[in-house]
Amino acid sequence: MRFPLRGRALQVALNFGNEHVITNLKDLGFTPDRAADVAAAAKKYADEETALLVRQLIPKSAWPGVVVVRRHFVAPREETWLMLKYESGKGWNLDSALFV
User: Fold this and answer.
1) CA 30 to CA 9: how far, in whole Å?
2) What digits encode the pLDDT tens for the residues 3-39?
3) Residues 78, 24: Cα–Cα separation, whole Å
4) Where on the tree of life does the source sit, at the highest rank (predicted)?
5) Could you tell me the residue ranges of all domains in the chain?
6) Sign of the CA dihedral running 33, 34, 35, 39
7) How far apart are CA 85 and CA 49, in angstroms?
8) Neighbouring-strand partners of residue 8
9) In this structure, what are the phi and psi dihedrals at residue 97, rounded to the nearest 5 degrees?
10) Rounded to whole angstroms, what are the CA distances from 47 to 42, 51, 52, 82, 84?
11) CB-CB contact of 85 with 10 (8 Å)
12) How far apart, in whole angstroms, are the C-alpha atoms of residue 47 and residue 28?
């Protein structure tokens, strides 16, 4: 069985707040509902990964280059894979998304 896949390179910084992220995603062509959902999920996963790195006592100087791929369920048969990347001086970026 084949699933239709659509992917986007996004390069959206997550450190400016949720409304800013939603606006940037809308500018990239996302619907308002999808933009809000993706922004909330990306922020949640970035916060979880930050907490994990802190718990593991990894120095912040070693964080640049950390890449996280997370599976986000939108609906029972709809999911989004989000790739987050930590960049020095910028924080977490929503690098790309794959819609299944």
Assistant:
1) 13
2) 555 677 888 999 888 899 999 999 988 889 989 999 9
3) 22
4) Bacteria
5) 15-99
6) positive
7) 10
8) 97
9) -140, 145
10) 9, 6, 9, 14, 11
11) no
12) 23
